[in-house]
């Protein structure tokens, strides 16, 4: 929620109300005291706007002016940062780094993949077990329990002369983020379409 917005005329009105009573403190528009207050009021109005902006900047999800400081605090940009991201994407990266909201659930990775504009299929493998596996199931060794294969990867569509380069950069960014947030014991395989 934004802090209240006060204009210079609001401050003139308030300052006039705070003046002492009497003949030497007139509140008419064409007096020297009112002109003095009208000269001071824009400074107070600017200051309240700056205060409201500071409240927004105190939180990484809504920061504007302090975004570079938030990025410096969490070590961004890093190897997984997008090249020339929008301010909204930069804020999302800061929030993601601060909250450490990564987990090894499929839902987390589905949301991460969708936030980057990709679609894909993630396959997790289960080693063969006598009481669980059935006839016709693929047989995997114990090591395959620690492998994720990402297939049917569809990158966001880019237009223009540099579309293929942008697609490649988006793929590298995706790989970097998935490898960053994947549990340490997981090996990821990416199968990109030709």
What is the chain-wise order of helices and strands?
A: HHHHHEEHE
Read across the widest sheet, the strand sequence of neighbours is 1-2-3
Can you count the beta strands? Answer: 3
Indicate the overall shape: elongated
Percent of residues in helical segments? 40-55%
User: Kindly state the mean pLDDT as a whole number?
Assistant: 85
- The class by helix and strand makeup works out as mainly alpha
Number of helices: 6
Domain count: the total is 3
Low-pLDDT windows of residues: none
Rounded radius of gyration (Å)? 29 Å
Taken as a percent bin, the fraction of beta residues is: 5-15%
Task: Summarize the main sheet.
Answer: 3 strands, mixed
Give the CA-CA distance, first to last residue: 48 Å
Q: Can you walk me through this structure?
A:
The chain is mainly alpha-helical and 194 residues long. It has 3 domains: 8-57, no CATH class; 59-101, no CATH class; 105-194, no CATH class. It is 45% helix and 9% strand. The protein has helices at residues 8-18, 32-57, 67-74, 87-99, 106-115, 163-181; strands at residues 119-124, 147-154, 187-190. A 3-stranded mixed β-sheet has the order 1-2-3, with helices on one face. The longest helix is centred in the first third of the chain and has 26 residues, at 32-57.
């Amino acid at each position: 929620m934004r802090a209240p917005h006060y204009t210079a005329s609001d401050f003139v009105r308030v300052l006039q109300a705070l003046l002492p009573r009497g003949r030497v403190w007139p509140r008419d528009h064409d007096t020297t005291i009112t002109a003095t207050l009208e000269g001071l009021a824009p400074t107070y109005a600017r200051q309240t706007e700056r205060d409201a902006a500071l409240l927004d900047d105190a939180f990484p999800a809504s920061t504007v002016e302090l975004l570079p400081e938030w990025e410096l605090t969490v070590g961004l940009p890093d190897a997984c940062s997008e090249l020339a991201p929008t301010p909204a994407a930069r804020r999302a990266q800061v929030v993601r780094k601060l909250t450490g909201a990564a987990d090894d659930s499929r839902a987390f990775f589905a949301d991460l993949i969708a936030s980057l504009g990709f679609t894909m299929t993630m396959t997790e493998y289960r080693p063969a077990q006598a009481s669980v596996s059935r006839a016709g199931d693929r047989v995997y060794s114990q090591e395959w329990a620690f492998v994720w294969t990402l297939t049917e990867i569809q990158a966001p569509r880019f237009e223009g002369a540099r579309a293929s380069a942008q697609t490649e950069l988006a793929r590298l960014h995706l790989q970097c983020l998935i490898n960053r947030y994947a549990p340490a014991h997981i090996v990821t395989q990416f199968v990109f379409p030709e």
